[in-house]
Write a structure and sequence with these properties.
Layout lengths: L1 H15 L1 H23 L5 H31 L1 H6 L5 H10 L2 H19 L5 H29 L5 H15 L11 H7 L3 H15 L7 H23 L2
């Protein structure tokens, strides 16, 4: 199957860079936690912040490794070869994204473990698993954005700037670190409709209350599927020439 090809490529990449991979796996959540602790001090609400850090790590795991792999594949001519296969653009793009799912869950689970050790409080298992799932869905949304961006831009030099700007925007505009109530009212109302805001609302309500306050997060899942379909169309349009 095509997905196995992408999984093998990703596994080989990690094996050749395992020291840097393990370092980032452990140090990034530590750095995020201690930076926020020093910045917020006594205003730090660990239970409120826990999902935010989890979502940041999931989004980074969904966007940055996939972006690196796609960049290497673009410049190596790999996509030109695989576009000649009988597989549809949707199958190719879906295989690319799914090949990073295990890594996405691994990073999210390791981050949750590190935070539990630092906070010294073990949350209930089912709400924690639900929050990890919502964070992983946010990572998949980030992955779908990366594929759309790269195939729409098609080898232009603005890849990294655009993806990094999108990453920062979603972190600060989705209520992960800063409550949306702190923004001016018209802007806050708009930001609540972001897919990443909807997923965070679901993740935080699960983590802190043990239940969903609403089911708006299903819209975020639907938007992720639509982005993947769009990415598949763009892939075939760019490389089937």
């Amino acid at each position: 199957m095509l997905i196995s090809t992408f999984i093998k490529r990703r596994t080989l990449h990690i094996r050749h860079r395992w020291i840097g991979y393990l370092t980032s796996l452990l140090l990034i959540p530590l750095a995020l936690y201690f930076t926020l602790q020093l910045s917020l001090g006594e205003w730090l609400d660990a239970d409120w912040l826990f999902p935010g850090i989890l979502f940041i790590m999931a989004l980074m795991a969904g966007m940055l490794p996939l972006w690196g792999d796609l960049q290497r594949n673009i410049h190596s001519g790999f996509f030109d070869c695989i576009a000649a296969s009988p597989n549809s653009g949707l199958v190719i793009v879906t295989s690319m994204i799914l090949s990073t799912v295990l890594e996405l869950f691994l990073r999210t689970i390791v981050t949750a473990t590190v935070l539990i050790i630092l906070i010294g409080n073990m949350p209930s298992v089912l709400p924690l698993l639900g929050t990890i799932l919502m964070a992983a869905l946010a990572g998949l949304f980030g992955s779908s954005l990366v594929t759309v961006w790269l195939f729409a831009a098609n080898q232009r030099s603005s890849h990294f700037f655009g993806i990094f700007s999108t990453l920062l925007f979603m972190i600060f505009a989705s209520g992960w670190m800063i409550p949306l109530e702190n923004y001016p009212e018209p802007l806050a109302s708009i930001l609540t409709w972001l897919p990443t805001s909807q997923l965070m609302s679901a993740g935080r309500s699960l983590f802190m209350a043990g239940q969903f306050t609403d089911w708006m997060w299903i819209m975020a899942v639907a938007e992720t599927v639509l982005l993947i379909i769009l990415s598949g169309y763009l892939f075939k349009k760019v490389y089937s020439r």
